[in-house]
């Protein structure tokens, strides 16, 4: 999860671009993480139950009140990977890039 205050960005896509850059440079340097995210876009939908399921099944707990969520958009990449589920969560004060992946 990448979390940042909303007031640093003009819109969710600006945050998403910066979050991808951060992961590419700081979390997975040299692995060209950003290549998977070229041409990404956000898809509207009813994703609350999916996100809630993934968060509740995490090994380490996080504190996120679902009542604080304003919107959840699915992050769509140009290529589909059934082992990844990615969302941009918007609360009143924050943007959260939520990346879920599994090897099973």
Helix content: 10-25%
**SSE string, helices as H and strands as E:** EHEHEEE
**Rounded mean pLDDT score:** 84
Radius of gyration: 13 Å
First-last Cα distance: 20 Å
Percent strand: 25-35%
Largest sheet entry: 5 strands, antiparallel
Alpha-beta content class? alpha+beta
Low-confidence stretches: none
Largest beta sheet: strand ordering: 1-5-4-3-2
Number of contiguous helices: 2
Q: In the residues, how many domains can be counted? A: 1
- Coarse shape: globular
List how many beta strands DSSP finds.
Answer: 5
Written description of the protein model:
The chain is of the alpha+beta class and 104 residues long. It has one domain. Helix content is 24%, strand content 31%. The chain has 2 helices and 5 strands; from the N terminus they run βαβαβββ. It has helices spanning 12-27, 48-56, and strands at residues 2-5, 41-44, 69-76, 84-91, 94-101. The model has no long low-confidence stretch (mean pLDDT 84).
């Amino acid at each position: 999860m990448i979390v940042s205050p909303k007031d640093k960005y003009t819109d969710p896509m600006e945050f998403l671009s910066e979050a991808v850059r951060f992961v590419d440079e700081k979390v997975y340097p040299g692995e060209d993480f950003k290549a998977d995210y070229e041409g990404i876009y956000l898809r509207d939908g009813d994703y609350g139950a999916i996100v809630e399921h993934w968060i509740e099944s995490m090994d380490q707990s996080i504190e996120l009140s679902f009542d604080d969520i304003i919107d959840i958009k699915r992050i769509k990449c140009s290529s589909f990977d059934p082992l990844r589920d990615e969302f941009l969560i918007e609360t009143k004060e924050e943007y959260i890039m939520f990346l879920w992946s599994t090897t099973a």
